[in-house]
Design a protein that fits this description.
The chain is built from 19 helices and 18 strands. The chain is globular. It has 483 residues and is α/β, with parallel strands linked by helices. β1, α1 (18-32) and β2 form a beta-alpha-beta unit. It folds into two domains: 2-251 and 467-479, 3-Layer(aba) Sandwich (Rossmann fold), CATH 3.40.50; 274-461, 3-Layer(aba) Sandwich (Rossmann fold). Bound molecules: adenosine-5'-diphosphate. Residues 17-18, 21, 168, 302-304, 331-333, 359-361, 364, 383-386 line the site of adenosine-5'-diphosphate.
Length: 483
C-alpha cells in the first residue's frame, strides 16, 4: 500500500498543534504496519535547516492561475520516513508559523500557498506525476490540503483514491470567490458540488465533498460533527457522507512522550516508581519560580489559549483555584485577552501561579510530568493529545466530556476505579463554577494517596500508542480497493 500524506505541518520541525504531532508520528506507525508512506510538506525555513542535504528531485512547472512553478526535494527523517519537500521560496520561505506572520495575522496569500500544496499533491497522485513512485492513496489533512481531492478529479483515469482527515472542523479555509482564478478554478467549479460554500469558496468543503473516505480523530467527534451544535455549518454535508466517515482516535508518539525515557525530565519514572514523579514536581516548581510546596496539588495547563480550550473559564476561577489551596502552572499562547488574564493572575499570586507565554516543547514535557492535575476543560475537542500525554505521565486530567476527551478520560467513581477504568475527572458543564467544583473535588482526592495512586496507575496502564490506530488506517485504505 503506497500512501502520499500531504500536510501543512510536521513535528518536531514545524508544529502549531496536534496536526503536526500526527503528521510526525502516524507515518512512522504506518510504515511499521507495512505501508510505504511519503510525506509532502512545504519546505519552510525549519525544514530547509533540518535537511540541508535534501536532494533536488524535479521541477514542477506552472499549473495554472497564479500558482507558481515549484521544485521538489527529497529527504529522509531519522525514523526512515521519506519527505517530499515542496520548495517555493516566494510562498514558504518566511518567518512566523505556517499560517501567521510574526505579528499574528494570517498571511494574505494563504489560499495560494495551500492551493499550491493541494495542486501538487493531486498531481503527484495522478498519472501526470513526474515521479516514478505513484501512491495508491492520497491522504490529506485539514483545510490546507482540502483542495487536493477536488483537483484529483481533474485526472480522469489512473488517479489515486483519496482520504481526507479532519483534525479540527473549526478551521475551514473559507475565502472569497475572488481567489478562484488564482487557484486555476473557474465557473464550472463554482457550484454546490464543487468548491462553493455559502457564497464563498472553501478548501475543506471541497475535500469533504470529494474525498473517497473521510476520517476524523475520535469516534465521538465523528458523531458530534454531524450535529448542528458541533457541525460548524458542515453538518449537512457530513450527514450525507456519514457512510464514508469514520472516527479513528489519535495515538501519541512513544519515542517522544514516555515518562521513563523522556530526555526533558529531571527524573524519569514509570508506574512502579511513582514516588519519583514528586522530584519532577519539585524541579518544575523551582524552574517556574513557584514555592516548593508539597502540601497542595499543582494544576498544569499546556495549550493554545483559546475559547475552544475553555481557558477563559479557568481564568475566571483563578482566585478560587489558588484558595483551594492549589498552585497553577500555565504554558501557552493565543488570544491576547487570555494571555493578559493569565499574566495578571501570575502577578496577583507570585509563588503560587507561574505563567509562560510562548511555545516551549521541553517545558510542555516538564509540566506534564511535574503537575498533579492537568486542566483541559475544552468546549469541543476533536481528539486532544495533551490529555493522553497526561494519562501516560500519571497526571490526572480534568476534562469536559467532548470529542476525544470523552473517548479517553473515564470519570472517577468507586466502581470505575475498582474496574481499573477511572483515570481522571470529568466536568459536564462549560461554566466557571462547575469547573471550580470539579477542581475542588479532584484537589480533595489528591490527599487520599492510595486512591490517587490507583487512579494514576489506571491512567498509566492505558494503551495510547499508534499501533492500533495505524492498523485502522491501513484497513481503511484497503477498503478503498475491495469491491
Ligand atoms: P490542538 O491541536 O487543538 O492545539 P492538541 O491537544 O491536539 O490540541 O495538541 C496540542 C499539541 O501542541 C500538543 O503536543 C501540545 O503539547 C502542544 N502545545 C500546545 N501549546 C504548546 C505550547 N505553548 N508549548 C509547547 N507545546 C504546546
Amino acid at each position: 500500500m503506497k500512501v502520499l500524506f500531504t500536510t501543512s505541518e510536521i513535528a518536531p520541525w514545524v508544529k502549531t498543534g496536534g496536526l503536526g504531532d500526527v503528521a510526525g508520528a502516524l507515518p512512522v506507525a504506518l510504515r511499521q504496519a507495512g505501508c510505504d508512506v511519503r510525506v509532502l510538506v512545504p519546505r519552510y525555513p525549519a525544514l530547509r535547516a533540518a535537511f540541508p542535504d535534501a536532494g533536488h528531485l524535479v521541477h514542477l512547472p506552472w499549473m495554472g492561475g497564479h500558482l507558481p512553478g515549484a521544485d521538489l526535494y527529497a529527504a529522509q527523517t531519522p525514523e526512515g520516513v521519506s519527505l517530499l519537500l515542496l520548495d517555493c521560496p516566494m510562498l514558504f520561505e518566511r518567518p512566523g508559523n505556517p499560517y501567521l506572520a510574526p505579528e499574528g495575522h494570517d498571511w494574505l496569500d494563504n489560499p495560494l500557498r495551500f492551493g499550491l500544496l493541494s495542486r501538487v499533491a493531486a498531481r503527484l497522485a495522478s498519472h501526470a506525476s513526474p515521479l516514478d513512485w505513484r501512491p495508491d492513496v492520497l491522504h490529506c489533512h485539514d483545510w490546507q490540503t482540502g483542495l487536493a481531492p477536488y483537483y484529483l478529479r481533474f485526472y480522469e483515469h489512473g488517479a489515486a483514491k483519496s482520504v481526507m482527515t479532519i483534525h479540527n472542523l473549526a478551521f475551514q479555509g473559507d475565502f472569497s470567490s475572488d481567489v478562484m482564478g488564482q487557484l486555476a478554478l473557474g465557473e464550472s467549479d463554482w457550484h454546490m458540488d464543487g468548491v462553493e460554500y455559502y457564497g464563498g469558496m472553501s478548501f475543506l468543503k471541497a475535500g469533504l465533498r470529494h474525498a473517497d473516505k473521510l476520517t476524523t480523530v475520535s469516534p465521538s467527534y465523528a458523531r458530534e460533527i454531524q450535529t448542528k451544535v458541533e457541525g460548524m455549518g458542515m453538518q449537512g454535508l457530513l450527514q450525507a457522507r456519514a457512510p464514508d466517515l469514520v472516527g479513528i482516535l489519535n495515538g501519541i508518539d512513544p519515542a517522544a512522550w514516555n515518562p521513563a525515557t523522556d530526555v526533558h525530565l529531571a527524573a524519569p519514572y514509570d508506574r512502579d516508581h511513582l514516588a519519583d514523579k514528586q522530584l519532577n514536581k519539585q524541579a518544575l516548581q523551582r524552574e517556574m519560580g513557584l514555592a516548593e510546596r508539597s502540601d497542595c496539588p499543582l494544576f498544569g495547563i499546556v495549550s493554545r489559549l483559546t475559547y475552544q480550550k475553555g481557558l477563559d473559564l479557568v481564568a475566571a476561577i483563578g482566585d478560587g483555584l489558588i484558595q483551594l489551596p492549589a498552585q497553577l502552572v500555565v504554558l501557552g499562547s493565543g488570544s491576547h485577552e487570555l494571555e493578559a488574564a493569565y499574566r495578571q493572575l501570575a502577578a496577583r499570586y507570585p509563588g503560587q501561579v507561574a505563567v509562560t507565554i510562548g511555545f516551549n516543547e521541553g517545558l510542555a514535557h516538564r509540566i506534564e510530568a511535574g503537575a498533579d492535575i492537568f486542566l483541559m476543560p475544552s468546549r469541543f475537542e476533536p481528539c486532544g493529545l495533551n490529555q493522553m500525554y497526561s494519562l501516560a505521565y500519571g497526571t490526572l486530567p480534568l476534562v469536559r466530556p467532548t470529542g476525544g476527551l470523552a473517548d479517553t478520560v473515564v470519570n472517577y467513581s468507586e466502581l470505575a476505579l475498582h474496574e481499573g477504568r477511572a483515570n481522571g475527572f470529568v466536568c459536564n458543564a462549560a461554566n466557571p463554577q462547575s469547573i471550580l467544583g470539579t477542581a475542588a473535588w479532584a484537589a480533595g482526592m489528591w490527599y487520599d494517596k492510595p486512591r490517587w495512586q490507583a487512579l494514576q496507575r489506571n491512567a498509566m496502564a492505558g494503551d495510547y500508542s499508534w499501533t492500533g490506530p495505524a492498523q485502522r488506517y491501513r484497513d481503511l485504505y484497503e477498503s478503498l480497493f475491495s469491491a
